[in-house]
Amino acid sequence: FASYTQSSVHLYRGGQNLYEKVLVYLMSRFLVRRLFSMFISIVGATIFIFSLTRVGPDPRYLYIPQTGGIGIQEDLWEELGEQLGINDPIHVQYGKWVWRMLHGDMGESIGTLRPVSSIIWQHLPATLWLALGAWIFAAVVGLTMGILASVKRATIWDYLARAFALVGQATPQFFTGVLAIMVFSVYMGWFPAGTRGNHDGFFLAWGNLKYYILPWMVLGWPAAAGIMRLTRSSMLEILDSEYIKLARAKGVANVPLIWKHGLKNAIIPPLTSMLVLLADYLNGALVVEIVFSWP
Length: 295
What we know:
MetI-like fold, mainly alpha, 2 domains, BPD_transp_1_N, 12 helices
């Protein structure tokens, strides 16, 4: 019996070690495949972006638009080509371009003749403040209205929340921005029509904060509408589940039932959506920045 037990233990340990080895092999294979596909995607994206910069005419014409290259000395024309790197073979140009991108060198702006990276860093804080404030507005308003619409189903609050979501997702931001300026700045005079102000003193002081409210609301409204609809549908699915009905039958109060059991399980889809929206705001704030003359 003792020898049988020892052999069983050895067999169990051997099977466990084999299972661990197979698991490590499968995970390693999965990671290698994902890393390889990510590498291929990055290389493909860089080739595509680099190709877009070479589709147009000779970039030397952009630096001398007055003459279009006519009458320019040949040695000056070749020197400009050397400076721009367009005389090199295409694969050498691509390698130099990738190397500069990795080091943050995006070249010079044709309009201002300044480094593009310095222009981005100069205006990035303004975009970050705009994106962060709009994201907080969208998260707070979207979650609140979604919870209220699901709890007050088929009431005036539900209809108002759905109308808010419908208008927010159907109206372009440039139209919403212009309309907000006309109503709240021109007619009512509550908020400034644009710019960021002078930023004197504390940031949250009304003298500074009033410049941010309209851009935050206009930029955050479509996202708040999406979060509201996602929260409402998720909450309704949870509130109609069997364990919620059982908790109600056992006499659990409505408030802890909603906050402890309902929202805890329904918050995952809206939370995932909100994290993705924060990255999108950094790319999609251009229209609002133009409407409100955001520096």
